[in-house]
Write a structure and sequence with these properties.
- The protein has 29 helices and 18 strands.
- The protein has 711 residues and is an alpha+beta fold.
- Strands 1-2-3-4-5 form a five-stranded antiparallel β-sheet, sandwiched between helices. It has a five-stranded antiparallel β-sheet with strand order 9-10-11-15-14. A four-stranded antiparallel β-sheet has the order 13-12-16-17.
- α13 packs parallel to α18, α15 (440-461) packs across α20 and α21 runs antiparallel to α22.
- It is elongated, with a radius of gyration of 40 Å.
- 34% of the residues are buried.
- Residues 83-176 form the FMN-binding domain.
C-alpha cells in the first residue's frame, strides 16, 4: 500500500510539472501579426512618402521626394505557400528599382517549431541574408554555390519552414519585378537557330503562295478599327458611318523574302541574287505590300523611323529605320494584285531573328486627339515559316523548375533510401518473428541495435519524430482544402507516417511505438542501462497501472478540443510531448522545456517508458484505430494467466493483463513474451509438457523386453 501511495504522489508531482511548463510556454510564444508600415520605415530610413498598396501584384511604392527608391510587398498577397504548420509565413519584402533585395521581415507565422522552440531572433537572422542579393539570382537554402545558384544558410530544426520562406520570397519578388519591368519573363522553350534551305525552289504563282501560307495577309475593315478605339478619347475621331463599316481600312501582305521559293518568285532571279548578296550573315529580309492605311506613315520622312510597323518575335519588338528599308518597285510573279505601297525591310543581325520561329507583323493605327496628343492601337498578323523552307533543329525544352516538394525529396534522397531500407528490415523481422524469437540473444542484440539507429539517425540526425500536432494538422487539412504537398514537405516524417499507418493496419499501434518512435527508443535504451547497473524499478499494482493509462487519453481529448478552436494553441500545449526539445532542438531551448524532458527521462530510469505508458497523446491517438488491425501474431496458450503469470510479470510495460490477455493498445511489440512462449526452459506450460514427455520416454525404456542371442 505504501508503495502505491508513493507512486501516486510521483504521478501528481509529474502532472503539476506539466502545468508549470505549459502555462509559461503559452505566455512566452505568442506571435501577433506585425504592422508592415513601421518596418518599411526601418528598411527605407530616407523615405518621404509611401504610396498606396495597389496594382497587380499588390505593391507599395516608396518615394524620396519625387524619386522612387524602392518597392515593398507582402508574400501572402502574391505567393501564399503553406509551411510546416499548414499556414503560410507572411513576410514583408523590399527591393530597389534595380531588383536588389533591401530587406525581408517576418510579419506573421504559425510554425510549431518556431513558436515553441527556436528563438524568433534566429528566424529574423535567416531573413537578414536577403539584402544585397538580386531578384534575378537563383537562391537555394543549403548546399553550395554551384551552377549559378546562390547558397543561403538554413535554420537547424526548421528546414522545411525556411525553404518555404525562400520560395515565397523568391516567387513574390520575381512576380513583382516582372510586373514592374525590372526583369524579363524567362523563355520557356528554346528553339535553336533554324537554317533556310537555299536549294529548295519551285516556280509558282501568287495565289499558290498565298494559299499555302508562304505569303500572309492582314486585313482590317473600318468596323474593326472603330471597335478597337471604343472607350478611348479617340472613339469618335474618324469614325466610319454605318454604311462605311464594311469598307476596307488596310490590306497588308507580308512574307519572308530571303526564302528562295518566295523571293525568286516575287523578285525574279536577278533581283533575288542582288538581295541575297546585300544581306550580311545573320540578316533577313521581309516583303511588305499594302493598300489602304499606309504602313509607312510620315515618321520615316521626318526622322527616318517607321512608327507604324514592327516585327515581334519571342516577345522582342524589331523596329525599322530608313537604312533598313528599300522601296520595292515591281513584282514579277503571276497573278499579283496591285499595291499602293511595297517595301523590303531588312532585319539586322543583332536582333538574332530566327527564321524557324513564328513571328508577327504589328501594324499601329494612330488617331490624333489634339495638336500633339494621340492614341494608338495595334493589329497583328501571324507568320509561320513552312517546314519545307527551313531546317528546324529539335526544340530544347528547359529543365522544368522543381516544385518545393520535389526539391525537398531530391535533397533528402539518401535519408529516404536508408529509411526505406530500415522499413524493409523491420517488416522482414515481423514476418519472421516466430523464427527469430527462438534465438533470444540474437533478437535482443538486433532490437537494441535497431533502437540505437532509431534514436541517433531517425531522431537526432533526421528529426523524424512524429507528434500529435501532425495528427491535428492532418485532421484540419482533411476537413478543409486537403493538399498532399503539406505532408510531403518533410520526407522523413511522411515515410514514418506511412510506416505507422501500414503497421497499424497490420499489427496495431504497437510496432511504431516499440520500434520507430525515437523518444520511446531512447527511453527503452536508458531503462535497459538502468537495469544493467541495478537501479531499482518501481512498478505500480496493476489496478493502479490500468487507471493511469487513462491520463494520455484525457490529454489527447484536451489537445483535440483546443485544436478545434486554435491549432496554434494546441501546438503550444502539445509541449507535453518532449519530442521537440529532445530531437528537433537537441535541448537547445528555454530551461522549463529541458527540465520537463529530463524529468521524464529520469523517471524512466525507475519505471520503463513512463511517458509512453501514461502521458503520450500520440500513442493514445494511434491506439484509437487499434481495432482495425488484421493480424494477431502474438501467440497465447490456455494456461496463460490461468495459472501462469510468467509473461505478465516479465512484461516491462505491463501490457499483459493478469488473466493472460495482451492489451494491444498498450503493447510495444518487444516480442519478449514470444521469446518466453517458445522457450522450453522458461515457459511453465512448455516445461510441464517437457516433463511429461521425459517421463513417458523413461517409462517406454523400462517396458522394453531385453533381446536374447541364441548361438
Amino acid at each position: 500500500m505504501n508503495k502505491t501511495l508513493l507512486f501516486n504522489r510521483r504521478i501528481i508531482l509529474a502532472m503539476l510539472m506539466i502545468i508549470s511548463i505549459l502555462i509559461p510556454a503559452h505566455a512566452l510564444f505568442v506571435s501577433p501579426p506585425k504592422d508592415p508600415i513601421p518596418l518599411i520605415h526601418e528598411i527605407f530610413p530616407e523615405l518621404t512618402k509611401i504610396g498606396e498598396k495597389q496594382g497587380e501584384p499588390l505593391t507599395w511604392t516608396i518615394y524620396k521626394g519625387d524619386e522612387i527608391i524602392g518597392y515593398a510587398f507582402e508574400t501572402n498577397d502574391i505567393a501564399k505557400i503553406p509551411a510546416y504548420s499548414g499556414e503560410p509565413v507572411n513576410m514583408l519584402v523590399a527591393i530597389d528599382p534595380k531588383g536588389v533585395y533591401l530587406g525581408a521581415k517576418v510579419l506573421e507565422h504559425h510554425e510549431p517549431i518556431i513558436l515553441a522552440g527556436i528563438p524568433e531572433t534566429k528566424l529574423y537572422e535567416f531573413a537578414d541574408q536577403y539584402p544585397g542579393l538580386s531578384v534575378s539570382d537563383r537562391l537555394k537554402v543549403g548546399g553550395s554555390k554551384q551552377g549559378g545558384t546562390t547558397h543561403i544558410d538554413g535554420l537547424s530544426g526548421a528546414t522545411v519552414t525556411v525553404m518555404v520562406m525562400n520560395v515565397a520570397i523568391v516567387k513574390s519578388a520575381t512576380k513583382v519585378a516582372r510586373a514592374l519591368g525590372i526583369i524579363k519573363a524567362d523563355q520557356q522553350i528554346i528553339q535553336p537557330m533554324a537554317t533556310i534551305y537555299q536549294d529548295v525552289y519551285q516556280k509558282t504563282d501568287w495565289q499558290t503562295l498565298v494559299g499555302d501560307g508562304s505569303i500572309r495577309r492582314l486585313y482590317l475593315n473600318r468596323k474593326m478599327v472603330d471597335e478597337a478605339f471604343f472607350g478611348t478619347a479617340a472613339e469618335h475621331i474618324g469614325q466610319a458611318l454605318p454604311e462605311q463599316k464594311d469598307e476596307m481600312f488596310a490590306e497588308i501582305y507580308f512574307a519572308q523574302l530571303n526564302i528562295p521559293s518566295i523571293g525568286k518568285n516575287l523578285l525574279g532571279e536577278s533581283e533575288y541574287q542582288w538581295l541575297t548578296k546585300t544581306l550580311q550573315p545573320g540578316e533577313h529580309a521581309i516583303a511588305v505590300m499594302g493598300n489602304g492605311y499606309s504602313y509607312k506613315g510620315s515618321g520615316y520622312v521626318r526622322g527616318g523611323i517607321f512608327d507604324r510597323l514592327q516585327v515581334l518575335q519571342n516577345g522582342d519588338a524589331i523596329a525599322f529605320r530608313d537604312l533598313d528599308h528599300t522601296r520595292l518597285t515591281d513584282l514579277y510573279i503571276d497573278g499579283v494584285p496591285e499595291f499602293r505601297e511595297m517595301s523590303i525591310f531588312i532585319i539586322r543581325e543583332h536582333h538574332a531573328f530566327n527564321p524557324g520561329v513564328d513571328w508577327q507583323l504589328e501594324l499601329l493605327v494612330r488617331r490624333q486627339t489634339g495638336a500633339v496628343d494621340s492614341i494608338f492601337t495595334s493589329f497583328k498578323g501571324d507568320y509561320h515559316t513552312l517546314d519545307k523552307y527551313v531546317d528546324r533543329p529539335t526544340v530544347i525544352l528547359p529543365e522544368p523548375e522543381l516544385t518545393l516538394t520535389q526539391q525537398v525529396w531530391q535533397e533528402k534522397n539518401l535519408e529516404v533510401m536508408i529509411l526505406a531500407g530500415l522499413m524493409v528490415i523491420l517488416l522482414a523481422t515481423l514476418f519472421l518473428q516466430d523464427i527469430l524469437v527462438k534465438h533470444p540473444t540474437f533478437l535482443h542484440n538486433f532490437r537494441h541495435g535497431f533502437l540505437i539507429v532509431t534514436v541517433v539517425f531517425i531522431g537526432w540526425v533526421w528529426g523524424g519524430q512524429l507528434s500529435v500536432v501532425n495528427v491535428f494538422t492532418f485532421l484540419q487539412a482533411f476537413m478543409s482544402e486537403f493538399s498532399w504537398d503539406l505532408f510531403l514537405l518533410d520526407p522523413v516524417i511522411f515515410i514514418l507516417w506511412c510506416a505507422a499507418a501500414v503497421t497499424m493496419i497490420l499489427w496495431g499501434r504497437a510496432v511504431y511505438c516499440g520500434w520507430l518512435c525515437p523518444f520511446g527508443a531512447l527511453q527503452e535504451l536508458l531503462n535497459v542501462f538502468a537495469r544493467y547497473i541495478k537501479i531499482p524499478q518501481i512498478e505500480p499494482p496493476f489496478a493502479v497501472h490500468e487507471r493511469l493509462w487513462a491520463i494520455k487519453y484525457l490529454i489527447l481529448l484536451g489537445l483535440f478540443g483546443l485544436s478545434l478552436d486554435s491549432l496554434a494553441m494546441a501546438e503550444q500545449f502539445a509541449e507535453v510531448e518532449p519530442f521537440k526539445t529532445t530531437f528537433l532542438l537537441k535541448f537547445d531551448r528555454e530551461w522549463p522545456f529541458i527540465a520537463w524532458a529530463l524529468l521524464l527521462l529520469v523517471i524512466n530510469l525507475f519505471n520503463r517508458k513512463f511517458f509512453c505508458r501514461y502521458l503520450c497523446p500520440l500513442g493514445a491517438a494511434l491506439s484509437v484505430g487499434n481495432n482495425v488491425k488484421l493480424f494477431n501474431w502474438l501467440k497465447r496458450r490456455p494456461e496463460c494467466g490461468k495459472p501462469c503469470q510468467t509473461c505478465a510479470k516479465e512484461c516491462e510495460i505491463q501490457a499483459i493483463h493478469p488473466d493472460g490477455t495482451i492489451n494491444m493498445r498498450e503493447c510495444h511489440y518487444c516480442l519478449d513474451c514470444q521469446i518466453t512462449y517458445f522457450n522450453e526452459q522458461k515457459c511453465p506450460p512448455l516445461k510441464k509438457l517437457a516433463r511429461k514427455k521425459n517421463r513417458f520416454n523413461e517409462q517406454n525404456k523400462e517396458n522394453e523386453i531385453p533381446t536374447v542371442n541364441v548361438a
